[in-house]
C-alpha cells in the first residue's frame, strides 16, 4: 500500500470526504434485534429496508502503528421511539481506544465496559470524544431534522467485535420521550452475572 502522506477535505454541511476508499451502507435489515420496539422494527422492515447510517473509510493496513480513520454519518429518524443509531461494538483488541470529532448534528455516544459500567456523552459540532480502551461505543442521532456527522480515528489492529453487543444489548438506550431525548434503562440488557449464569 502507498505510504505517502495524503490529505482529504470534508465539506460541510454534508460530511462526505472529497475522496475515500470504501463506502459502507448500513440498513435496517442489519440491525435485527437491536431496537427495543420489535413490532415497529418488523413493520418498518416489511415496508422498506431503510438506510440508517453510512461510513466513508480510508484503507490502511490493519496493523499496530497504523491509524484507521473516516467519516460516520447517522441519518435522522426513529424506530418506534428509539433514534437511529449505529450497531456499536467493542474492539476485538479490547485495549484499544478511539477518538471521535463531531462535525455536524447532535446526538450521543453510548458506551459501556464488559463489566457493565456505562457512560453517555453528548455529541455537538466541535465536540471531541475520547473513547478509552475497553469501552464499547454506539453513536445515536437525536436530531430528527439532520445527519449526525463524526470523524473517527482508531488503531489499525483494533478490529471489531459486534457479536457481544448483538447478544447482550447496551445497558442504556436513547429514546424520544415527552421530555425530549432521554437516556433510559434497556429492559432487555443482561448484566455480566446474568450472562454467565
Ligand atoms: C467507527 C464505526 C462507525 C460505524 O468507525 O465503525 O461509526 O459504526 P459500527 O461499526 O458500530 O457499525 C468505529 O468506531 N470504528 O472502530
Ligand atoms: Zn470503534
TrEMBL record:
GO biological process: gluconeogenesis; glycolytic process
Keywords: Gluconeogenesis, Glycolysis, Isomerase
UniProt pathway annotation: Carbohydrate degradation; glycolysis; D-glyceraldehyde 3-phosphate and glycerone phosphate from D-glucose: step 2/4
Enzyme class: isomerase
Recorded GO CC terms: cytoplasm
Gene Ontology molecular function, alphabetical: glucose-6-phosphate isomerase activity
Keyword Isomerase: yes
Domain of life: Bacteria
Keyword Lipid biosynthesis annotated: no
SUPFAM superfamilies xrefs: RmlC-like cupins (SSF51182)
Catalytic activity of the protein: alpha-D-glucose 6-phosphate = beta-D-fructose 6-phosphate
Coiled coil: none
Domain Glucose-6-phosphate isomerase prokaryote: 26-173
E.C. numbers: 5.3.1.9
Family: Belongs to the archaeal-type GPI family.
Protein name: glucose-6-phosphate isomerase
